[in-house]
């Protein structure tokens, strides 16, 4: 039999700290590791100077077609962006009125960002959305108070992309929730209907839906009642997105334990009440990353409407450059520009979704 | 008819145009539509509504155009569309008049030294999808055993871009299109050669929906009226003056001075005078948009009046 | 069976099946008087949970009738579609239930958990509902946790919140389904203490539990179930000292060995 | 019951209304409908074909050519995205910080840019920056890379039908670029690369998540019976991860197949492109779009069914 | 501390940290003789699992030295990179381990679970490995389950398979980390029975468990840990009747109350 003495806790022996140690461990710990690092570095060093030359050192920054022509092949011509930025960003919107789409997009962006912040989750948010949409359409459409009327066929570029993405998300969400609830309904007919809708829509490509919205839809309606093509495309995207969102929402619904529904019933809540107050908030919270991924897809997919001749961001780049022999050769720089825009927005969304996840974990547990 | 009523009611005509063929219908830097097809549309608007600007322009890709017309999204399709039997008979469309006589041709980079389309054996050819060009190309290739390889793009500008990037050894579409593309989109027009062969007949003209003969008649006679106006020397500049003092019975009839042709069409007396006042006669429209003084630079050629040895032969307005 | 006015819950030959073949409740006849405290026990899978979930209309049954505080719950499919819906709502307002897994709403604060029912079912305005909720939290001794979220509390505290939530609708009857069995041993006692306090206040309680000490000191009656049937019912003293049926004897023997 | 009946009736009414409208509209405008057009001669050529096709063949055959082109791109894309995705996914778990960072960057970049833009960029790179066909880069006079695509030697028969008739044919420079051998068009290369690289980013995430999902207890158990690191990966981690990876991987394959419809934007003659052309030539819009939707739907259901069978085969056996 | 030849495991001032600040093993000095059966107990979080995982080289440590059947496991970073890898493999061949969560490979049949090690580590051909595996399955009384998959077995059966798997490499030492605590009460006994049988066969066993009856009847020695230190070691009889340290007394008191 033995009894040991009390041993006080002490700190671990000093491990080498700091970035140098990190580098040593991460990049040169073990010979295979070191070899990989060297190979990657060699590759990087061989590729980088050329790339840097092209993007930076040899690049032409002024909208100077002749300088660009001279630098062609060795350096990028960022001047093309300077020259064409307005056309790329705003499409065929009348040039004198460009402040309107700019203002409208900024308003919309600000509102979207505000809606993402917990601090702003106040009562005024809902009316704010109504107000901003009203302002957006008023600004874009004009036709009052001295603002020149601009028909929707001339809307284009970034505002169009933003509007289509946000509006179709807004429209798709409630539909998705209904579909998801429907797929779990006790009523077999409704269940089957919702399941069929979701599976059918998920089985076809978006562009076939867009074709349908833009070519066929008018045939389905009584003669003369054809809504604006923008509206039809918007509906098409929303109906399509709803099917995908519905699956995400359904996964969330499944993650809510049955006990929650029982508990809600036991305090007297009816079916709709318990879904609205108890199940959905938890279900949607549980699938924020999934929802955000779907939102990102919708935003990216908005680029497909160029295929049905609407000039959103991707389309307006084509519009801006492909008809202009002087600047057409610098398409790749144009693509870099819009790629950067798409990337920033999508990356911001996925960052945000990770942030929300962390917030939730922190807020609800100890 | 019904179409005319709805148009009058909403006080605007919806006209389908192409998404961008310089000289025919293209947006200028201000986003305004200009071109021959556009002017014809304007003439119709002026004749019907009294104002050439009461138009909603609907740019359409080639796959969209027929359904857009069929479904009522546009009232007139004025979009360099070839009139063919299939289109006229089976697709719910009706042609009104021929506004431009064209034919399909080839363009090649001058450096290839190709002088005739028959030398294109085995070449890759850029073409836009959903056009008569695709079929003509296939026929031409088969007849001459050329084994041409089409690369088909869904949009006109995509096909242009691919040709100028060097993806294809030749580019085929209507010669007017080739000329306008070469003029406006080639860096140096001299580097590209339009080959002499015309491999098809391409009568282009505005189309309307089937089933409304009154509306068809209006569009048909506006086009004929513009041609007739040229034949009779009525121009944008002199129309008012002629209307006031011309003693020529034909002019008087055309401008509604002596006879009310408008009533027969369901319009007022001045319909043609307004149209001419808005866009000029056919010759003026042609010269302004695609004529030799414009970048597109097309000689009148077949599009001269019959009196000058061309094909434009306006049906008599009486 | 007497039909005295005192009875607040009455099972009349209730039969229930899961699926087609699994007969989970068999000819249940049981009467509980107003203010009575009944403990239901029995081996795992014997149908205890099912029994008390029937009282709250969380489970439908296929045969028989169940009267809860004067409201009749009929067998499933017995022609009373629309009336049935209303009966269910009435019953649920009069019956509070506490679950084994607490089933608090994790996305709502403790206070919101408590006011959800009163506000959306009874239609109380928020300030009133909150005042009342705070009173109930006092009753289970955790008023100071009102603004935390459920997952930030210990198991014992969570279960006490669940009890307070059940009390917020001022129910006539309180149902407990193994309220302590998901708790760490140290926390069992705090919940049992709260339950004992409640039992002293005259509310009708039906409690599924294996806490025999609690049953002995609090229950008026013990009901023993096995394989979906009521096997034996007795006063606690009698039940623990000399159970009549062989199965109850077995069951008690096992409990003793484990304890 | 009432609700169900109402919902069904409502839906039915809506559908009937739409069909009725369509019929009215089509009748009023003299639009012909029906499937007879599939038997008409196509009248157009198709640039790339796996089975013989010329303008004299029927439209039905044209659709078949388009479908085969779609499948060709989809299959190659699936191969590419699986290989690349697995590499990048494993790279994200590598010990080397640099490699990890690079793979992460790859995923972020390719995931966050619309596929259409990526396709256009690939195509642009190919047709803008490769040499003209008459100045093709060649490798040993056997491989030629140019704006006309990648030409390589192929086995061809000279039509006599005997075995000896098969011989290798080398591509060679002719008046209009490269003739002989076989070639991949730049459209095909761009679509395949675009789809492959885009989907690879998603596959990489699937692979990474799959490997991370293997409980650490399994790996410890493997180590404690003495398996080496590589054996653990091969015998325990990989088979377990595979089961997690398979279902989302199927989804990615389905997405890739559906996304191949974007090929139409860069002139690759896939099913959608052929349907588009047909729609224009015949005016049968409803029918052509129905063909597109039905074919993709069938492909989806078929893949899903196959994968379900596979899934069941590899599912862990439980009681 | 004696350095007699009998010792099969020897901890020499082993210290381990999780992160920089969490000192989880403190100056561990412990010697276990060949054939000895040692039970490690102590409150949750005291470092018991960490301790026995060190023996199997599943956890590295930062200070001290650990000898397992003659093979030395050095502290992390002590210059023996390549040699260290080999030492780890040697140790793992001589030590079998049974986990709380069984950790059977769910994608392999029971037989494949058992032959995986022998075939790929010891390089045995399949027939031999299978014969041996069947023998081990006999030993834990479930030979008839050889062709099932782990998830098709009950918890007790799974844990017995896990024990058989550990035995298949003919280890010198068997480690058990709470082998019964993930089991349903009825199944605990079957596993304990198997372990008791094994204990009778002279293999060295180190076992983390709270099954005090098992400890009493099987162990040669009990080691009590708290806060990462060895607090007390004693023969079972002495430990249970009169623990010396205050902490062990407390711990035993709690166990009794719960039991
Ligand atoms: N939704 C269900 N579908 C099918 N069988 C069920 C369902 N719910 C419970 N059962 C089965 O009915 C039987 C009784 O279940 P119940 O939950 O009422 O038992 P219990 O007495 O509460 O047991 P425990 O003490 O384990 O909670 C069990 O065998 C259970 O497996
Ligand atoms: N990988 C890890 N990283 C950081 N801390 C850890 C890690 N693993 C265990 N710990 C912490 O180390 C301490 C000792 O863990 P250990 O698992 O050895 O305890 P134990 O005595 O086995 O407890 P139990 O009886 O609960 O299994 C615990 O406080 C635990 O939270
Ligand atoms: Mg129960
Ligand atoms: Mg442990």
Helices and strands, with pairings:
The complex is a heteropentamer, with one copy of chain A (366 residues), one copy of chain B (318 residues), two copies of chain C (259 residues) and one copy of chain D (319 residues).
Chain A: E1 2-3, H1 18-28, H2 31-57, H3 65-71, H4 79-90, H5 99-116, H6 125-141, H7 157-183, H8 188-203, H9 206-220, H10 229-255, H11 258-266, H12 271-286, H13 288-301, H14 313-322, H15 331-364
Helix pairs in contact in A: 4-7, 4-14, 5-6, 5-7, 7-8, 7-10, 7-13, 7-14, 8-10, 9-10, 10-12, 10-13, 11-12, 13-15, 14-15
Chain B: H1 2-10, E1 13-18, E2 26-27, E3 33-34, H2 36-49, E4 55-60, H3 65-70, E5 76-77, H4 85-90, E6 93-95, E7 100-102, E8 104-109, E9 124-128, H5 132-143, E10 149-153, H6 156-165, E11 170-174, H7 175-185, E12 192-194, E13 202-204, E14 207-209, H8 213-231, H9 239-245, H10 249-254, H11 261-265, H12 271-279, H13 282-289
Parallel strand pairs in B: 1-4, 1-5, 9-10, 9-11
Antiparallel strand pairs in B: 2-3, 6-14, 7-13, 8-11, 8-12
Chain C: E1 7-18, E2 22-33, E3 37-41, H1 48-55, E4 63-68, E5 71-74, H2 81-94, E6 95-98, H3 110-122, H4 126-139, H5 155-167, E7 173-177, H6 185-199, E8 204-208, H7 212-218, E9 221-226, E10 229-234, H8 236-241, H9 246-258
Parallel strand pairs in C: 3-8, 3-9, 6-7, 7-8
Antiparallel strand pairs in C: 1-2, 1-4, 4-5, 9-10
Helix pairs in contact in C: 3-4, 3-5, 4-5, 5-6
The complex binds adenosine-5'-triphosphate (2 copies) and magnesium ion (2 copies).
Q: What ligand species are in this complex?
A: adenosine-5'-triphosphate, magnesium ion
Write out the CATH superfamily name of the domain at 59-127 and 185-314 in chain D: MetI-like
Helices of chain C, by number, come to 9
Distance between the termini of chain D: 37 Å
Number of strands of chain C: 10
Mean pLDDT across the residues of chain D is 85
> Largest sheet of chain C, order of strands side by side?
6-7-8-3-9-10
Oligomer: heteropentamer
Q: For the record, what is the CATH homologous superfamily label of the domain at 35-49 and 93-258 in chain C?
A: P-loop containing nucleotide triphosphate hydrolases
Radius of gyration of chain C: 18 Å
Which architecture of the domain at 35-49 and 93-258 in chain C per CATH? 3-Layer(aba) Sandwich
Question: What string, H for helix and E for strand, traces the elements of chain C in order?
Answer: EEEHEEHEHHHEHEHEEHH
Query: Which structural category fits the helices and strands of chain D?
Result: alpha+beta
Structural class of chain C: alpha/beta
Lateral strand order in the biggest sheet of chain D: 1-2-3-8
Q: Summarize the main sheet of chain C.
A: 6 strands, mixed
Low-confidence stretches of chain D: none
* CATH topology-level name of the domain at 59-127 and 185-314 in chain D: MetI-like fold
Can you tell me the CATH topology of the domain at 35-49 and 93-258 in chain C?
Answer: Rossmann fold
């Amino acid at each position: 039999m033995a009894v040991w003495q009390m041993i006080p806790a002490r700190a671990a022996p000093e491990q080498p700290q700091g970035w140098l140690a990190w580098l040593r461990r991460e990049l040169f710990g073990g010979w295979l590791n070191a070899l990989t690092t060297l190979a990657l570095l060699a590759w990087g060093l061989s590729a980088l100077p050329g790339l840097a030359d092209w993007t930076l050192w040899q690049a032409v920054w002024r909208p100077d077609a002749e300088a660009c022509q001279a630098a062609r092949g060795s350096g990028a011509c960022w001047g093309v962006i300077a020259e064409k930025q307005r056309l790329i960003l705003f499409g065929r919107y009348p040039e004198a009125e460009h402040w309107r789409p700019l203002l409208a997009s900024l308003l919309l962006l600000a509102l979207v960002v505000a809606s993402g912040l917990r601090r702003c989750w106040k009562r005024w948010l809902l009316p704010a959305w109504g107000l901003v949409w009203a302002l957006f359409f008023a600004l874009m459409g004009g036709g009052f108070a001295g603002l020149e009327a601009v028909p929707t066929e001339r809307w284009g570029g970034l505002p169009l992309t933003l509007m289509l993405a946000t509006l179709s998300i807004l429209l798709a969400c409630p539909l998705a929730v209904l579909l998801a609830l429907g797929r779990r309904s006790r009523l077999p007919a409704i269940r089957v209907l919702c399941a069929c809708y979701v599976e059918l829509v998920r089985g076809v490509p978006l562009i076939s839906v867009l074709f349908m919205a833009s070519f066929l839809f008018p045939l389905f309606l009584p003669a003369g009642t054809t809504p604006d093509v923008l509206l039809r495309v918007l509906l098409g995207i929303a109906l399509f997105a709803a099917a995908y969102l519905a699956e995400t929402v359904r996964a969330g619904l499944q993650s809510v334990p049955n006990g929650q529904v029982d508990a809600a019933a036991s305090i007297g809540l009816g079916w709709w009440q318990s879904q609205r107050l108890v199940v959905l908030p938890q279900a949607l919270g549980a699938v924020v990353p999934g929802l955000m991924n779907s939102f990102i897809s919708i935003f990216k997919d908005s680029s497909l409407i160029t295929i049905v001749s609407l000039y959103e961001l991707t389309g307006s780049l084509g519009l801006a450059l492909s008809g202009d022999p002087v600047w057409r050769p610098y398409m790749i720089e144009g693509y870099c520009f819009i790629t950067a825009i798409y990337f920033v927005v999508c990356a911001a969304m996925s960052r945000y979704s990770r942030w929300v996840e962390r917030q939730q974990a922190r807020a609800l547990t100890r | 008819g019904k179409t005319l009523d709805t148009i009058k009611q909403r006080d605007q005509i919806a006209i389908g145009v192409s998404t961008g063929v310089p000289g025919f219908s293209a947006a200028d830097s201000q986003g305004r539509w200009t071109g021959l097809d556009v002017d014809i549309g304007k003439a119709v608007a002026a004749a019907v509504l009294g104002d050439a600007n009461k138009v909603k322009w609907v740019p359409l890709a080639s796959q969209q155009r027929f359904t857009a017309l069929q479904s009522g999204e546009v009232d007139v399709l004025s979009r360099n569309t070839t009139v063919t039997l299939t289109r006229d008979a089976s697709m719910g469309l009706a042609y009104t008049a021929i506004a431009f006589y064209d034919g399909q041709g080839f363009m090649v980079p001058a450096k290839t030294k190709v002088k005739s389309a028959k030398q294109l054996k085995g070449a890759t050819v850029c073409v836009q999808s959903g056009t008569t060009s695709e079929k003509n190309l296939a026929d031409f290739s088969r007849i001459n055993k050329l084994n041409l390889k089409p690369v088909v793009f869904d949009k006109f500008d995509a096909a242009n871009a691919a040709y100028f990037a060097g993806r294809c050894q030749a580019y085929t579409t209507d010669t007017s299109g080739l000329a306008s593309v070469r003029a406006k989109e080639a860096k140096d027009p001299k580097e590209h050669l339009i080959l002499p062969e015309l491999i098809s007949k391409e009568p282009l003209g505005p189309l309307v929906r089937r089933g409304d003969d009154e509306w068809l008649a209006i569009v048909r006679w506006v086009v004929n009226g513009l041609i007739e106006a040229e034949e009779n020397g009525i121009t944008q500049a002199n129309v008012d003056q002629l209307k006031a003092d011309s003693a020529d019975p034909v002019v008087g009839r055309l401008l509604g001075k002596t006879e009310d042709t408008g009533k027969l069409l369901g319009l007022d007396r001045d319909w043609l005078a307004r149209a001419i006042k808005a866009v000029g006669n056919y010759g003026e429209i042609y010269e302004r948009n695609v004529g030799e003084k414009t970048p597109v630079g097309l000689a009148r050629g077949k599009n001269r009046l019959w009196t000058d040895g061309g094909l434009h032969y306006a049906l008599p307005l009486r | 069976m007497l039909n005295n006015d005192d009875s607040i819950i009455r099972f009349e030959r209730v039969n229930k099946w899961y699926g087609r073949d699994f007969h989970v409740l068999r000819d249940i006849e049981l009467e509980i008087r107003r203010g009575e405290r009944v403990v239901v026990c029995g081996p795992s899978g014997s149908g205890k949970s099912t029994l008390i979930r029937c009282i709250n209309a969380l489970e439908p049954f296929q045969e028989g009738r169940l009267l809860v505080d004067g409201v009749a719950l009929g067998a499933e499919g017995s022609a009373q579609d629309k009336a049935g819906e209303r009966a269910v709502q009435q019953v649920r307002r009069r019956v509070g239930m506490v679950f084994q897994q607490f089933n608090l709403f994790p996305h709502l604060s403790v206070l919101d958990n408590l006011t959800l029912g009163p506000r959306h079912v009874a239609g109380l305005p928020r300030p009133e509902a909150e005042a009342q909720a705070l009173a109930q939290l006092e009753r289970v001794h955790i008023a100071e946790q009102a603004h935390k979220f459920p997952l930030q509390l210990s198991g014992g505290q969570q279960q006490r919140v669940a009890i307070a939530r059940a009390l917020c609708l001022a129910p006539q009857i309180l149902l407990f389904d193994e309220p302590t069995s998901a708790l760490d041993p140290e926390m069992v006692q705090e919940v049992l203490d709260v339950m004992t306090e409640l039992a002293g206040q005259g509310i009708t309680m039906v409690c599924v539990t294996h806490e025999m000490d609690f049953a002995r000191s609090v229950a008026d009656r013990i009901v023993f179930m096995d394989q979906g049937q009521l096997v034996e019912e007795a006063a606690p003293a009698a039940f623990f000292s000399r159970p009549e049926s062989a199965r109850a004897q077995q069951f008690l023997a096992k409990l003793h060995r484990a304890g | 019951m009432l609700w169900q009946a109402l919902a069904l009736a409502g839906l039915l009414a809506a559908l009937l209304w739409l069909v009725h409208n369509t019929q009215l509209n089509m009748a009023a405008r003299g639009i012909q409908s029906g499937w007879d057009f599939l038997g008409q001669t196509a009248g157009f050529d198709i640039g790339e074909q796996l089975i013989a096709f010329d303008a004299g063949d029927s439209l039905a055959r044209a659709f078949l050519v388009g479908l085969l082109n779609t499948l060709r791109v989809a299959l190659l894309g699936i191969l590419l995205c699986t290989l690349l995705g697995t590499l990048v996914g494993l790279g994200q778990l590598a010990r080397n910080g640099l490699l990890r960072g690079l793979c992460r960057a790859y995923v972020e970049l390719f995931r966050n840019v619309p596929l259409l833009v990526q396709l256009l960029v690939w195509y642009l790179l190919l047709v803008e920056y490769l040499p003209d066909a008459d100045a093709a880069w060649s490798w040993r006079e056997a491989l030629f890379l140019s704006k006309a695509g990648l030409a390589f030697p192929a086995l061809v028969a000279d039509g006599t039908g005997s075995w000896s008739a098969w011989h290798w044919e080398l591509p060679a420079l002719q008046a209009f670029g490269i003739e002989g051998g076989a070639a991949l068009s730049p459209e095909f290369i761009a679509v395949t690369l675009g789809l492959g690289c885009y989907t690879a980013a998603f596959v990489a995430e699937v692979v990474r998540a799959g490997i991370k999902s293997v409980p650490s207890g399994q790996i410890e158990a493997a180590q404690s019976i003495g398996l080496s690191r590589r054996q653990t990966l091969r015998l325990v981690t990989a088979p377990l991860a595979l089961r997690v990876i398979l279902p989302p991987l199927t989804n990615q394959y389905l997405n890739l197949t559906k996304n191949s419809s974007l090929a139409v934007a860069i002139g690759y003659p896939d099913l959608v492109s052929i349907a588009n052309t047909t729609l224009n030539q015949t005016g049968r819009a409803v029918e052509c779009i129905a063909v597109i939707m039905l074919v993709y739907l069938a492909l989806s259901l078929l893949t899903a069914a196959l994968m379900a069978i596979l899934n069941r085969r590899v599912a862990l056996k439980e009681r």
